[in-house]
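Follow-up to my post from last week.
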Amino acid sequence: MPHDHHDHAGLSPSGHPYREDQDNSLSYWQAMEIAVRELMIEKGIVTAEEVAAQIDAMDARDPSQGAAVVARAWTDPAFRERLLADGSAASAEMGFDVGPMKLIAVENTADVHNVVVCTLCSCYPRNLLGLPPDWYKSRAYRSRTVREPRKVLAEFGLTLPENVTVRVHDSTADMRYIVIPARPDGTDGLDEAALAELVTRDSMIGVGVAKTG
Amino acid sequence: MTPDATGKRWHDMGGDLAHPLAGPIPDGDHDFALWEKRVDALVILAGLKGVFTVDGLRRVLEDMGEDAFETMTYYERWVASLNQNMLEQGVYSVADLGARMAEVQARGTTYADATDAGA
Amino acid sequence: MQALEPGTPVRVRRMMPPGHVRTPAYLRGKTGAVERVLGPFGNPEQLAYGHTPDRLPLYRVRFRLGDVWPDAATPDDTLDAEIYAHWLEAL
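User reply:
Got it. Predicted complex:
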């Protein structure tokens, strides 16, 4: 990633060592997961097939879904209007179910730059972007972005001119947010699929901009 | 005119620049292990089945306190919260859980051994 | 509580109750304006404890960064947050 490089190898976002994901010895919490899952299945809450299908569904979700939505908004003005008016409905048109939460799309322009954070937990538009990156869940990002957004953006390599208003969105409740980054100059000849390739995860969180090619 | 911060809790961290861990945005990312994906799936499914809400998940995570945030991984906290909510809902009992965890731990010393034996 | 129109100036209540709430402490007592009206949504303060929730309007409120943080380096940047109706008073 393009921002500050500190030695966080093997450390959690808050600076603590990670525990091994695939520990050779069964951890207490892994044993709890197995026990909870088996009991939930036995009590008829879920089935093993549903658990497997849900994992497959989440594994299939990644930022390419959000990128497809952005590219459609760049190329189809009527879709862009619908997306800004009702993000959930517009995403559903493309076959992307954003789940029980509602999606709000916010658009970057020559005058406005949007960035998304969740200070209370780590709400994230997971159905369009996949699971959040570790830094999004970190205390540093959660605490600083609402107070010194430009300093945070600068650490991601993004320095905005003073005449651009920064709009920070704190996902405090039932909404999820996706940023529609500005379409890069010189991309008039590209089709929707090629444009989607320019749309990065970070540009849809608002800590980056779309690639220029 | 800063509101009195008495009563503000650890998870409510917006603007806390003075916290020792509110430093540079950390680098890097990592993928999740199978057991973590299963926790995620169980949380989502329990919500869809109406036995659980995301606010119930959050409430338990918040009540676990800052120490848990710093010493447990993300999905360790999530499985602890999921379990707490299932107990509160009466889906199973503490005795059920205790007996099952002991049984799981007796199946083998690795996650693969313990989970496959019960599948 | 009457629905608040977009543009209505509002202040976030200064209450500091314990328990699960979705109104960030840093916005308590701060003044902004309704950006849009959302909802109704179930009250998370009831959902968190397993109770059937009241359905409440939810507002996206826009604050000037300078009104949230007196020492903001760029006071005209903005911050939007979703705040449930019972946490807001119209000004």
